[in-house]
Fold this sequence. Notes:
The protein is mainly alpha-helical. The chain has helices at 3-12, 16-32, 36-63, 84-91, 94-98. The chain folds into 2 domains: 3-65, no CATH class; 69-102, no CATH class. It is built from 5 helices and no strands.
Amino acid sequence: MSLAQIQDNLKHLRLNRIQERLETALEEASKSSLSYSDFLDQLLSQGVASKQEKYIAVRTSLAKFPYVKTLESFDFGFQPSIDRKKIKELAECRFIANGENV
């Protein structure tokens, strides 16, 4: 199967991120001697991440939020009474799996 055919199949499957990245990924895989399964896993992981980013962007746009705030962009210096370590720990949501109260 030729590279053009693979590109065409990716386009047909709407795997645009993988299609854009395929040639670079093939070069990187040959340099690092990745196994076929590792190469495929890496490529598909990038495609999934891209789809998730797009999904979040579309949902945020549809929600018509005036702006997007994340924990990473929060200015803890502005509110010193908030414990940064505790907030990051809560953001991991381990309390849910552990069945703990916040």
